[in-house]
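This section describes the prediction task in plain terms. A model, or a person checking by hand, is given the sequence of a single protein chain and must write out its three-dimensional structure as a string of tokens. No templates, partner chains or ligands are provided. The sample shown here is typical of the held-out split.
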Amino acid sequence: MRASLFNVVAITASLATANAVLPRAACNADNCLRAVTGTAGVNNKPALTARQADCSAFLVATVTPDTSTITVTATATVTSSPQRRAVDSHGNEVGEMEKRIVTAAAAAAAVPTYASACSGGVRYSSACSCFGITASTVTAAPPSTTTTVTATVTVAPAP
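The expected answer:
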């Protein structure tokens, strides 16, 4: 009898606590969500459509493909005086071109001031998701780079 009473108590206790550890699909109805949806009662500005647009802009991720680079190398063998050097139109000696590195940093969207109850971007993003706004990805056009190199070589016969 004692064992079965213990089993009943143990099973009841485990069922009571099982609900506490299950994942929740509901949103937190906190001040952050109320600020985002405009239901806080204190400040209902901007309009609902503007709040939705702010959330959409915050949740968009822009992907920019890498620039495709085409390298053309031309080699010419010229017999000339060893004192001669190849120079460009400004008189500078022509050497090997250096690779240019361009970095682009994505500017993180700021949390709007009306959503100051949100303690950061993660909370604002969560509230926007609860507001029914879904994240989206936009693929930007790949950057195009056109480089024109003109080289003029004047060859003097060897003495």
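For orientation: The longest strand covers residues 60-63.
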